[in-house]
Amino acid sequence: MKWVANSRVMFWSLELLIVAALIWVCTQISFLFSPIGVFLSTIFAPLLLSGVLFYLLNPIVKLLEKVRWKKFHINRTAAVAIVFLLLVLLLVAGGMWLVPRLVTQVSNLIGNIPDFAKSSEAVMAKLINHPIFKDVDFSKYLTQIQSAFSKYAESFMSGLTNGIGTIIGTVTTVTVTAVTVPVMLFYMLKDGERFMPAVRRWLPAKHGEQTAELLGRMNSTIARYVGGQILECVFVGTFTALGYMLIGEKYALLLGVFAGLCNLIPYVGPYIGILPAMIVAFTISTNMVIYVIIVVVVVQQIDGNLVYPNIIGKSLQIHPLTIIIILLAAGNIAGLLGMILAVPLYAVVKTVVQYLYSIWQLAHPDKPAPKLDDNLSRKD
After folding, report:
1. What's the pTM?
2. Could you read off the pLDDT of 312-330 as tens digits, one per residue?
3. Is the distance from CB of 11 to CB of 4 less than 8 angstroms?
């Protein structure tokens, strides 16, 4: 076996064979892992939502803990209770104002789908009769567009009608999540500061400090990204809705909320968010389409040049091309949720690898190690 150890080809061949054998064995006993998959899929949504709210509210809790007036001091439990109360008041006030308007606009939008088809035909006919397109034959293209639109409308309405079971399942999931998230969030906020000391106690002194530092870096990366993205989405959604209201776009509030949610997807989100607004605007007039484009461009320029650099900045140090590649891969693997979670997950993995390499460099000062920064990232 000594010759195997001395041969790099044989060594790595055996390693790959062992890995392949382990993968094959795992596929044969997949029934053992199915309960784990069910458990993880059940807690994933509440845990994700609780984590996002934790990173949003934890800075407020820390700020309240610093409040001191003579002998008066707010402990962490009281700070968490105050934050919960403010959050409930905000959700109730926002729900009473926002939810009824969104429900009304959604119901109106669904009810007006047949009218959209007629309006689109009228606008298309007016556009075709324009002198610029007098020498172009649009008849075959118009037939294809009308056929595709009618099929899409029929499938949408049939799916909406036949999806009662799905709606009931979704309502059940949302109800369970709504009950679970506040409990998980409360304990995250209340006991979150005890996590690092516990890690130091569980591990040996040297590894405990290194692990705590690594977790601190990961926590900082996620906190900057999550907090920044939420604030940025609120900005984009609010001002897009206001812009649509100013130009007289139908369903301005609904389309603005949709644009804000789509902004969670870096780079690609704004293009997805503008599509419904363009479709609605097209049923009104071609001028409305231009106005919608102007509103979105203005909001995105303000966001890209003022809001994003000041809230998130270059803290992630990821080049746009890298992000686009990550989004393409994540979208094909895990759909919309994968596109939303891919960038912060990549940033966390990058932070871990950078930290491990820095430890390696300290342990081997005579051996140069390659830089771990994204080789396409902008240099500050």
Report:
1. 0.67
2. 655 566 777 777 788 788 8
3. yes
